[in-house]
Design a protein that fits this description.
This protein has one helix and 20 strands. The protein has one helix at residues 10-13; strands at residues 36-39, 52-56, 114-119, 130-138, 147-154, 157-167, 176-184, 201-211, 214-217, 221-226, 229-230, 248-254, 259-266, 272-282, 288-291, 300-306, 311-317, 321-322, 332-344, 357-369. The two termini are 29 Å apart.
Length: 370
C-alpha cells in the first residue's frame, strides 16, 4: 500500500532515487511495500504535480506472465469453531471513543486533523492480522502529540481494537501529511469470547485519534470477513467486486508499458484524499486470476488530494499477482478492473460517521498473455 508525501517532503522527493526516502516522523510503515516518493506524472486534465504522489518500488509489471505469488493465497476454509467468537461485544454507553463497546459516532465538533484508513495487502499467513494503512493530515500551524487507534465495528459498535496502532511524538507544525501501516488483529476485544477471531460477516474499519480538546475520526472502510480472514477475490466471479460509488467517477485504459492510465473525478463539496488503487485481472470465464492486493514485495499506487469537481488524470504501474500459487497466468486475453479508494474530508458534513468512497471500472484494452 501507499505512503503519502507530506508537503515538507515533496520537493526532496522529486529528486530521490527509489527506495531511499523514509520520513522519520512515521511511527510505523507498511512492511511489504517499502516506498519511494516521486512526483506524479500527468496525462491530461488538471495537473497533479504537487497534488498527487506516486509511491513505488520496482515491480515485475502488469504484463508479466509469471507474476509473483506466495503461500497463503489459496481458498480459505475457516478456523475450528472453538477459535471463533460467537458472542461479540455489545454497546457500552460508558465506553470512551476508540475503546471496546464504543458506539461509533461523528465527533460533536469538527477536528482540524483529518484521518483516513484503508486496507493493505493480504497477509502472508491466512489467519494473521489484517494489514492496514492510516493517514493523518495536519493543517497549517497545528502540532499534536497523540496515539492513533484503529477499530473494527459491527453494526456501529466497536468489537475489535488496536488502541496504539500508530504513535507520534510532537509533530512538526503543519501543513504535513503522514502515513504508515501495521497489522490489525481481527480478534474480539471483549465479552465472553474475547481474543477469539471475529466470525464471518460485514464490518467497518475506523481510525480514531483522541487528543486534548477533541476527537478525530476517519471515514469508515468496509471489511468483509470470510473464512475467518479478510475476504479474498482470487478465484471468485468478477461480480464479487464492490459496486461503484456515485461520489467518484473513474475510467481508464491498459497501456503497453506495464502501466495503466486513470481518470478520476471527485464530486463532493470539499477536498477528498485518494488512498489506493487495486487492479484485478479476469479471464474469459469471468474468474479473477490475479490481484494486486495479494502480498508481494513490490507495488505502486498514487495518493493525494482530490479537489472537488476537477478531472485528475495520471498513470500508475501495477503488478497483479497470480492467484495460483506461483503458476503462470492463463494464456489469452485478460480483462483488467480497477478499484480505487477515496476518503472524504470531515468538511463534507452529515449526520453520522462517513464512509470511504469506492470507485470501480473496467479498463479499456486487455492484457495479452502469450
Amino acid at each position: 500500500m501507499s505512503l503519502d508525501l507530506s508537503s515538507a517532503l515533496r520537493e526532496a522527493a522529486d529528486h530521490a532515487p527509489l527506495g531511499t526516502l523514509e520520513p522519520s516522523v512515521l511511527g510505523r510503515r507498511v512492511r511489504h511495500r517499502r516506498a519511494a516518493r516521486t512526483a506524479a506524472r500527468t496525462a491530461g486534465g488538471v495537473g497533479l504535480a504537487g497534488v498527487l504522489a506516486v509511491t513505488a518500488t520496482q515491480t515485475p509489471g502488469l504484463l508479466d506472465r509469471y507474476s509473483r505469488s506466495v503461500p497463503g493465497t489459496s481458498a480459505v476454509t475457516g478456523l475450528p469453531a472453538d477459535q471463533v467468537a460467537t458472542t461479540l461485544p455489545t454497546a457500552d454507553p460508558g465506553a470512551a471513543p476508540g475503546t471496546c463497546g464504543w458506539a461509533v459516532d461523528r465527533p460533536a465538533a469538527a477536528s482540524p486533523l483529518e484521518l483516513a484508513v484503508a486496507l493493505g495487502t493480504y497477509p502472508e499467513e491466512t489467519y494473521s492480522a489484517v494489514p492496514v494503512t492510516v493517514e493523518v493530515r495536519v493543517p497549517e500551524n497545528v502540532t499534536f502529540r497523540s496515539v492513533i487507534g484503529v477499530v473494527v465495528a459491527k453494526d456501529g459498535v466497536v468489537v475489535a481494537t488496536s488502541p496504539d496502532f500508530m504513535s507520534f511524538g510532537a509533530t512538526p507544525a503543519g501543513p504535513i501529511s503522514m502515513a504508515g501501516g501495521g497489522d490489525l488483529s481481527v480478534a474480539a476485544c471483549g465479552g465472553p469470547d474475547a481474543t477469539k477471531v471475529l466470525p464471518d460477516g460485514d464490518y467497518v474499519l475506523y481510525a480514531v485519534l483522541p487528543y486534548e480538546g477533541g476527537l478525530a475520526l476517519s471515514p469508515g472502510e468496509p471489511l468483509v470477513i470470510s473464512g475467518n480472514s479478510r475476504e479474498r477475490w482470487c478465484g471468485a466471479h468478477v461480480s464479487v467486486l464492490p459496486r461503484g460509488d456515485d461520489r467518484v467517477g473513474i475510467s481508464g485504459s491498459v497501456r503497453g508499458d506495464d502501466s495503466i492510465d486513470l481518470r478520476l473525478t471527485w464530486s463532493g463539496t470539499a477536498e477528498a484524499e485518494l488512498l489506493d488503487e487495486r487492479v484485478v485481472l479476469v479471464d474469459a470465464a469471468d474468474r479473477i486470476v490475479a490481484d494486486s492486493d495479494i502480498w508481494a514485495a513490490s507495488g505502486e499506487s498514487v495518493t493525494g488530494t482530490l479537489p472537488p469537481g476537477q478531472l485528475q488524470s495520471f498513470s500508475v504501474r501495477t503488478s497483479p499477482t497470480s492467484c495460483d500459487e506461483g503458476a503462470a497466468l492463463p494464456s489469452g486475453e485478460l480483462r483488467a478492473f480497477v478499484v480505487a479508494t477515496v476518503a472524504p474530508s470531515s468538511a463534507e458534513g452529515g449526520s453520522g460517521p462517513s464512509t470511504n468512497a469506492t470507485a470501480v471500472a473496467e479498463l479499456i484494452g486487455t492484457v495479452t498473455v502469450p
